[in-house]
């Protein structure tokens, strides 16, 4: 994730990068806490089983790895 953060904030000033990093850290901590407390109920609400979630997460990781291997760099082309 660090490489994605650095490439997306390449043109920002150091102060802006620090503010973004703090906001993202707080958002991730809050999201993680909510999922920790209410994750089972959220999965039940949407009818998601743990195995279905594992398959979906594994598929996303696999596709991400494939794009890294193939050298796709969509973030670099967005700034042009």
Weakly predicted, low-confidence segments: none
Extended strand count: 0
Largest sheet: none
* Apparent shape: flat
With helices defined by DSSP (H or I, 4 residues minimum), what is the helix count?
Answer: 4
Mean pLDDT figure:
86
The radius of gyration is 17 Å
Order of helices and strands: HHHH
DSSP helix fraction: over 70%
Report the end-to-end length measured between terminal Cα atoms.
22 Å
Instruction: Note the beta-strand portion.
Output: under 5%
Structure class = mainly alpha
In words, what does this structure look like?
- The structure is a single chain.
- The protein has 80 residues and is mainly α.
- It is 82% helix and 0% strand.
- It has helices at 2-8, 14-46, 50-70, 74-78.
- The model has no long low-confidence stretch (mean pLDDT 86).
Could you write a compact summary of the structure shown?
The chain is mostly helical and 80 residues long.
Topology of this structure?
Elements: H1 2-8, H2 14-46, H3 50-70, H4 74-78
List its traits.
80 residues; mainly alpha; 4 helices
